[in-house]
Amino acid sequence: xxWAGELETIFGGVARGALYALIxxxxxxxxxxxxxxxxxxxxxxxIGSFAAIITLAIxxxxxxxxxxxxxxxxxxxxxxxMVSAAFGFTNERLAYRPLRRAHALAPLxxxxxxSTFLQNFVMNAQTKDKVDFPRAFSEPLWELRWRVGEVExxxxxxxxxxxxxxxxxxxxGMVKYTRLGKAMRACSQDQTMAALVGIPVDRVISITxxxxxALAAAAGMMFAMYNGQxxxxxxxxxxxxxxxxxxxxxxxNIPGAMLGGILIGLVEDLSAYHFGAxxxxxxxxVVLLTVLIVRPRGLLGEAVADKV
Length: 308
Fold this sequence. Notes:
The protein has helices at 3-34, 41-63, 69-96, 105-125, 135-143, 155-177, 179-189, 191-196, 201-227, 234-249, 254-275, 280-294; strands spanning 131-132, 145-148, 151-154, 229-230. The protein is mainly alpha-helical. It is globular, with a radius of gyration of 19 Å.
């Protein structure tokens, strides 16, 4: 057995899974408060990837030369998170808030409609073809290599994993130790009682959409760097896989979304390594079905107190 290849695949799977976890957090946070699946979340991820690429193009054009890669990437990341956060906020105000007390199917259908609208909006506003991530920014990170014994990892994988873990840790700390996090957990448990004790429930829900959308945008930019490209329909597959990760870990549970995302990334990369890329999604859903048969609420689904 090629142990070096196995270890490199595992590290790549963890890095990819951390990005799935960032997207899954948006699903699980919204579900934790509203008990609603935001099926437009994948498109928010896709918009983040486009916003990052457009921002990098603008920065390069305005500066008249290739700017410092790390500074330009930081600007692209912030811009992508801001744009996606604005879309997430707008979606909540226009498509979901008016239907909050409607039949359960109404916001679900609205979410599917928003998903279709955003996908076609980007296709018509940009292009229906693949859009390459600027190689001048991603290739130096791919070419940067670290070797430990026979195991070699790319600098981009290390940076992606570090950024994803850092964002997840910041979110976990915010939910657990801040007043906003306490308000989110209160709304998750009982919105009526939260409102009675003075918590602005509508504002908390809007902020939840904003945070989840910003995390999805970060994943969108990093996935575009990782894969070298994006498309107007890139959010569909990534969204389905991330939703699978949220369900696998326990929908509505933040640590569960993190665990589920990393496990999905590992299953994807290991199955592609051993059986070929055509089998990776088959393996993902076999694992999901197996876990749901054994533990219907997901791996960490019983940790109800921290489910926001």
